[in-house]
């Protein structure tokens, strides 16, 4: 559905849609997500070429084997972070990707959206968590576990922690052996302040390192930022992430070819065009995201 129109632009308008100039590389925290619906993961390699600041990726699954991507898997050396997408993953028989050092819990269990997420009550997720923890540590005893990643605010995850570790909220669940090591979250916003306030609320609530595994300039309510606004938003947010010691990884959402896989995130957030080439925004991200 996505296409790129060719039009004549004045020099003034060209200047208004220019990626942030980049003079240094990023912190090594940046990565991408890549949906299995794309069929092949070979295009992921374009994000990890020589000089790229990106270091990791994920695909909402436990691995990136041929069963996930029958049309091809990438061969670059970037770190892959597996995910237990929903409750069925526990008994699916799927194996964790060899060499993993972190594993994610459920994807957006606080909502049910077709093709995106399956709602899971926080108490049920807590009941299943020890099985996930045991499987992850059996595969890699030094691995870190990332919490289930809600789409919304802290409420679902607070309920999850309270079910997992009753009576410990006042100490941020610091004495619970089963608690996740890292907090996973998604952060979509229409401006810089909206995004940072959400991330700060998660950190102040849980007091653990954070991975923002999806973020972009969006609100899923008709907001359509200009390309320049997205360039600037990326520059501001990636700089801020790199400055926060507690944000250990982040991944911009927009590495897709098929518009359907954007799931209503505005087209101006694309890191890859429909023809499989890297967009100017994608180049900005590869080069560090900010000045």
Automatic annotation (TrEMBL):
GO terms for biological process: fungal-type cell wall polysaccharide metabolic process. One of its GO terms (cellular component) is fungal-type cell wall. Residues 43-285 form the Asl1-like glycosyl hydrolase catalytic domain. It holds the Pfam family Glyco_hydro_cc. InterPro entries: ASL1, Asl1_glyco_hydro_catalytic, GH. Keywords: Signal. The keyword Disulfide bond does not apply. It comes from the Eukaryota. Residues 1-17 form the signal peptide. This is Asl1-like glycosyl hydrolase catalytic domain-containing protein. It comes from Saitozyma podzolica.
């Amino acid at each position: 559905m996505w296409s790129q129109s060719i039009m004549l632009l004045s020099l003034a308008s060209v200047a208004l849609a220019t990626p942030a100039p980049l003079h240094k590389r990023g912190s090594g925290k940046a990565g991408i997500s890549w949906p299995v619906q794309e069929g092949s993961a070979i295009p992921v390699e374009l994000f990890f070429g020589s000089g790229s600041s990106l270091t990791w990726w994920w695909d909402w699954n436990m691995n990136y084997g041929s069963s996930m991507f029958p049309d091809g898997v990438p061969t670059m050396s970037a770190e892959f972070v597996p995910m237990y997408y929903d409750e069925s993953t526990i008994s699916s028989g799927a194996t964790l990707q060899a060499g993993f050092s972190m594993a994610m819990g459920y994807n957006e269990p606080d909502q049910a959206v077709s093709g995106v997420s399956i709602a899971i009550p926080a108490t049920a997720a807590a009941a299943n968590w020890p099985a996930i923890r045991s499987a992850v540590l059996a595969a890699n005893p030094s691995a870190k576990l990332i919490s289930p990643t809600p789409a919304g605010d802290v409420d679902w995850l607070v309920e999850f922690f309270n079910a997992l570790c009753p009576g410990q909220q006042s100490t941020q669940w610091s004495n619970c052996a089963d608690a996740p090591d890292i907090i996973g979250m998604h952060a979509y916003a229409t401006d810089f302040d909206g995004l940072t306030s959400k991330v700060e609320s998660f950190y102040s609530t849980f007091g653990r390192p954070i991975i923002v595994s999806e973020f972009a300039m969006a609100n899923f309510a008709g907001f359509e930022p200009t390309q320049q606004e997205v360039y600037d938003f990326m520059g501001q947010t990636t700089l801020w992430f790199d400055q926060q010691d507690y944000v250990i990884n982040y991944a911009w959402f927009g590495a897709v070819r098929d518009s359907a896989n954007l799931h209503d995130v505005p087209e101006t957030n694309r890191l890859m065009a429909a023809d499989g080439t890297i967009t100017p925004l994608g180049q900005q991200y590869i080069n560090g995201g900010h000045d």
